[in-house]
Write a structure and sequence with these properties.
Layout lengths: L1 E2 L5 H16 L10 E5 L8 E5 L2 H5 L7 H21 L3 H16 L5 H22 L12 H9 L5 H11 L4 E6 L6 E10 L23 E10 L3 H10 L5 E9 L1 H11 L6 E5 L7 H12 L3 E3 L12 E3 L2 E3 L4 E3 L6 H7 L4 E9 L4 H24 L1 E3 L3 H11 L8 H21 L14 E2 L4 E7 L3 E5 L2 E3 H19 L5 E2 L4
Parallel strand pairs: 4-13, 6-7, 6-9, 7-8
Antiparallel strand pairs: 1-19, 2-3, 5-12, 5-13, 6-10, 11-12, 14-18, 15-16, 16-17
Helix pairs in contact: 1-3, 1-4, 3-4, 3-15, 4-14, 4-15, 5-13, 5-15, 6-7, 6-12, 13-14
């Protein structure tokens, strides 16, 4: 372990942010450019490109040759990717705002002690920014604006009809999934089933190389277990029943001790067993209702693991249709469970739409799938949490709101730094559109004063597509939260210690 006195920790983090910024800044916005990522162990022998536009994919394996900078990058990436995991988007916006904030602050040349004081000031400013953000929240009561929201995420209007069709079918509380297909054209398939989109755990044995489960038109049997499974013998018979079975057995269970889980998984991963254990721990206080709801959907009883189960006489429920991936599990109920859904008033959708992504080649398919993925998250989050005006205008508006506040609420240093940084993301979006950023927040790329619409693309040589730009409120909220939290953490660092394990 060595104290690196010659290296300023903030400078190390600044280098890390700069690398992430240079890798992703050009991809911001509907007119953002693609990135070609070269991958493979022996590039000179078998070079491959993956053309992507998604910030999350771009920074996934990005690193630096400097050990300290690489570690700083990893720390920042974890914070940045939490924006994506919680809100489904916003990776690039988080990187850009953090970069602009550090760039603006570093001009002041503060001492290490003054940085700590500044960290407190910015921590205080975060709460005020989030309070101001709430003023710009717009609520969607239906799916009427989904097409416009999808167009912005996709960067064109070519496939927005698919998202309109999918969300109109699934409804506000429904589930929309994505699936790669070998079909010639993209399409939407619809399932009148029961969608569970809060699954606590789906084990690795059920995941393919892409981390997704994809089982369609599978005849399944299922059993629902309530209570904590404390001994392996309590479920060993379920495992044995799946041995050599042509039908997949889905085991829904409330919870399991780590020791039993390890023993069960060791056996379940063997090819002779055909079982899919699904944990319902994510439902927490709603556990009892969910287990009974699932049992009603598949036509079976809920078994209590706190008592000895007579597995010889257990009747397994039937699932005539099962579709799984890393986001949701869809069951087609045996009977009509609409009354059950109504009685429990739970956030479960009896309808699921699957947008099938098609393309002419593998490279285009990957790039299109990532854009579709962003669009699904944007649409779903907009319906769930509301929207804010996009194109960076809400960030600028929120920053403008705190400029006139007294020092007792937000310090002058924090106000000036935040205002400069938030306009930075706004200017970058204009740059990616090939335009110069205007002085007012209302004037955005291609803004039409008469119609109040934003030009998001060009069809042919002259006809322009005009639509308003929206961002998901949850994305804007997570971006501001994670950027300020990460920035405060960086400013609070006073020493850099290298602890290399040899």
């Amino acid at each position: 372990m060595k104290l690196l006195k010659e290296k300023d920790p903030v400078e190390v983090f600044t280098k890390a942010v700069e690398i992430l910024y240079n890798a992703t800044a050009h991809s911001l916005g509907p007119n953002g450019a693609n990135t070609a990522v070269v991958y493979g162990e022996r590039l000179e022998a078998n070079p491959k490109f993956n053309i992507i536009n998604d910030g999350k994919q771009i920074i996934d394996n990005l690193t630096s040759e400097e050990v300290e900078v690489a570690c700083a990058m990893q720390t920042i990436k974890e914070s940045v990717l939490s924006t994506n995991s919680k809100a489904g988007d916003g990776t690039t916006s988080t990187i850009l705002l953090l970069h602009e904030l550090m760039k603006s602050f570093n001009k002041s040349n503060c001492s290490a002690e003054d940085r700590v004081r500044a960290a407190f000031e910015f921590k205080k400013a975060k709460k005020r920014l989030l309070d101001e953000l709430k003023k710009y929240k717009l609520t969607l009561g239906d799916v009427s604006s989904i097409k416009e929201i999808a167009e912005v995420s996709l960067g064109s209007c070519d496939f927005s009809d698919l998202f309109e069709e999918a969300f109109e079918f699934a409804g506000v509380d429904g589930t929309v999934l994505l699936e790669k297909t070998n079909d010639e054209e993209c399409s939407v398939s619809k399932i009148d089933g029961l969608s569970l989109n809060m699954i606590g755990f789906v084990p690795e044995l059920a995941l393919d190389a892409n981390g997704e489960i994809n089982k369609e038109e599978v005849d399944c049997k299922a059993v629902v277990l309530n209570g904590t499974i404390k001994t392996f013998t309590a479920i060993s018979d379920v495992l044995l029943k799946s041995k050599g079975s042509k039908e997949l057995i889905v085991m829904f269970y409330s919870s399991m001790t780590q020791e039993v889980f390890n023993m069960f998984m060791t056996n379940a991963m063997k090819p002779e067993y055909n079982i899919l254990p699904v944990s319902l721990e994510g439902y927490k206080d709603q556990m009892f209702k969910y287990t009974h709801l699932i049992s009603a959907a598949i036509g079976s009883k809920v078994l209590d693991v706190s008592t000895k189960i007579d597995w010889k006489n257990v009747e397994f429920g039937s699932i005539p249709y099962l579709l799984c991936n890393s986001e949701a599990l869809v069951l087609r109920p045996v009977g009509d469970v609409s009354s059950t859904l109504k009685d429990y008033k739970l956030n479960l959708s009896p309808r699921t739409a699957i947008v099938k992504v098609a393309a002419g080649n593998g490279v285009l398919l990957e790039e299109r799938f990532r854009r579709f993925e962003d669009a699904v998250h944007s649409c779903a989050n907009s319906l769930k949490t509301g929207i804010v005006l996009g194109a960076g205008r809400t960030y600028v508006s929120v920053a403008n709101d705190i400029v006139g506040l007294p020092d007792t609420e937000v310090s002058l240093r924090a106000r000036d730094c935040i205002h400069t940084a938030f306009r930075g993301i706004y200017s970058k979006l204009f740059e990616n559109c090939g335009l110069e950023a205007p002085e007012t927040a209302k004037s955005i790329p291609g803004y039409d004063e008469e119609t109040g619409a934003y030009i998001i693309g060009v069809v042919g040589s002259s006809d322009k597509v005009r639509k308003e730009v929206y961002d998901s409120y949850s994305v804007a909220e997570q971006v501001i939260t994670n950027v300020l939290d990460m920035f405060v953490s960086i400013l609070s660092v006073k020493a850099l210690i290298c602890d290399v394990q040899r």
